[in-house]
Amino acid sequence: MTPSSEPAAPAPPAATRTETVPTPAGDARVTWYDAPVAHTVLALGHGAGGGIEARDLVALAAALPPQGCTVALVEQPWRVAGRRLAPAPRTLDTAWRQLWPALRAPALPVVAGGRSAGARVACRTAAELGAVGVLALAFPLHPPGRPERSRADELAAVGGAGLPLLVVQGERDPFGRPGEFPAEVPLAPVPDADHGFAVPRRAVTSGPQAMRALTAAVAAWAPVAGRS
After folding, report:
1. How much is the pLDDT for 226?
2. Whether the predicted model's global pTM rises above the 0.90 cut
3. Helix, strand, coil percent content, the chain, rounded in steps of 5
């Protein structure tokens, strides 16, 4: 898909640790935000137009550890190497598979997830890797203006495998507004938000309110997915 703009978020909370993981595509990096007492790991990949500084990823890294969910923000090798363009989906999937043992290392259930292109990677690989659920942030249901090129089959594969799924989608996302998704897809809309979960300056919803809606939806769902 065409890389989209992913505006930077405020500075993230202090990470617990950072881990480099070799993959066939180069070194990947996992930045851990450990819960004091964890019941689940939520592994989140970034999109094709930005890194783990995306506002939704930062917000979840801050909000979920106090609630018992360790967050692992995953940087794909192309991003670690400083390249500007993401490689083909097959290469992204291969790197994610190679990272999986590191994500399983805490010996906790792992929910696979990500934003945009990272969400697609999680959907395509979750069943084979043994993820206990999939969190899709800003899922790119179709390229902007091209609804006929639907990627709903990737979401359907998650449901077909019997895995819990949650899509968190901005109401103004040109890659797919909430009403465009199949009725059977569990979806939490974020009012007034675009693909990067930014909201217009004059919107009814403020930026902090949008992030609270996003993190509240994930916090309510993650323990259920992790214990399924």
Report:
1. 61
2. yes
3. 35, 20, 45
